[in-house]
Structures
1.
Amino acid sequence: MAWAILDTGVYISYWERGLYEEALAAVRDAFIVRHSAVVLSELRRGARTREAQRLVEALYGLARTQWEPTAAEWWTAGRLIRKIGDAQRWERTKRRDFQNDALIALTARRQGATIVTTDRNDFDLLAKELQVSVLPV
């Protein structure tokens, strides 16, 4: 069975707005979902309410297998962000925000995983550079 990583926006959209229930059921049927340490960190950083913190902590407890970027992937992310950012004429803030997406994509590529995301634009740019599979919901 194939692997998948859910991007941060998928969790937030599901938890906060109840979106993508059918899409997530299809993902669970087609993939083994693994957790990105980058996504877990983003979720924890943004968990402002007690309920959000409880959800993130529960997910972290379930995430027995966490995939994290290697030092080489951090290094490659810098090049990718510069290349894509220059081509897109991004300001510093957008480049900084794009870093986590680049790290998630590089980790997914190493593991042969598909990225399930709500952020089609950024991950499509990364897919072109890295030949990583992206499944927008």
Note: The chain has one domain: 2-136.
2.
Amino acid sequence: MSNKQTLWFRAIVAFVIFGLVVSGLTAFPLAIELDILAKLLVGSDADLSPTSHTGLAHWILLVREGLHETYRDYPFLAYGTDWLAFGHIVIALFFVLPFRDPQRYRDVLWVGVAACIGVIPLAAICGPIRGIPFYWQLIDMSFGLVCIVPLLVALRLSGVEA
């Protein structure tokens, strides 16, 4: 790779690392984030009952309510999202390897591509089973699509045909 290609490669991989770390860190304060999102969607003085709303506002308020009830009655279940957050951060660490040595560790990028592809059937299969609205499944699927593009570009820059 030329110096310019290496710079672009590292910028792209850094973007993937950043996205994974941010995704991980935002999984810790879910209740706070949902409170903020609910107030932004329906207003700070509005009724926050899911039954008073439709569409996206209903879904966000329902998830918020479920999360608050779960945290109140079964706080240990939040430990699962703590592990989800930790998992994102650990996955991000694996991308440090190709960041440092693009040729030697380019297979890590292929694992990332496979994970991006795997997001789509996971959301399509588990979403309906868990009662997730279709539009939200599409949002979840978009994470795989958003991440696969930079990974494929990084693979091309590293000399691997993508």
Note: The chain has one domain: 3-157.
